[in-house]
Request: fold
Amino acid sequence: MKVYLEYEKFREILLEVLREIFGYAAVVVRKICKDNDVEQEAFCIRPKDEKDVEIPLAYPEDCYRDYMECGISLKQCVKRIVDMQKQMEQKSILSQTKYKLMDWDSIKTEIYPILLSTELNRKSPEGVIKRELMDLSIVYVVRLVTGEGCCCQIKITEPMLKSYGISVMELHNQAVLNIKKDGYKLWRMEEMISGILNEQEETKERIEPASECRSVDEAEETKMYVLTNSLRMFGAAGILDRELLKDKLGEKNYYMLPSSVHEMIFVPAVEGADWKDLNCMIREVNESEVLEEDRLSDHCYFYEGKTGELRSCA
Reply:
């Protein structure tokens, strides 16, 4: 029977090993305010020749969760962190970022929208650019890919927007345009679950394009669908691409269930469906299954197929 380390011991060893690898002074411990005003301890690294810059290197609580729930050893956790850091250095991401971030032509194709709860993000830093959508906030980020399946996101602020010389609407339009190259698809629920289970079994089998919902026909009008992007990160923002929804869903009406900030579930709004029951289910799942920083909303939304209108069901 495998014996697991307690969290404090795991954290202590992880920090010690990272400091041995990167240097004691290079790795510092900080409290980071993540999405939904969740504060979490992070091990941050100070890049060489960048004394005033600290980049989150690892969140020990997340590493411990992978250790306990996914069977990833402490050694594998360290290797994953080190590999990601090496990839960042090889691509000169840290040294180039501060210059690239302020140049619109260099960065515009890497800007994406994400959806966050307005209510749960009251402590978000001042100056972050956002637009309201019902009770949600559209926030704009620069996405920097640091390796296979790994990326970091930097929220766009007022000083950045000023340096670009554009309006908020121009920023929004560019971000929505970039959605179209972000691998968004509407998957049948059973195929999405099957693909996730396969990945957890380390088969690395991806969901095949044939499983994608290209359009909804009469025989499938009671099926559920999942909207997300190729990275499965902040994929709920796909609802901003109304052309995608129109093309895939036609003129049928759906309830949209915010599974998390990473995906949106579409349930046919058939006769007799009660959005109040759906809201109860969403609250229960949020409390038992969804990480606090990943929660998007505690109620569903309504998508009207004929008009493309989105409405809150609260």
About this structure: Confidence is low (pLDDT under 50) at residues 202-211. Residues 185-313 form one domain. The chain has ten helices and 13 strands. The first helix runs from residue 7 to 22.
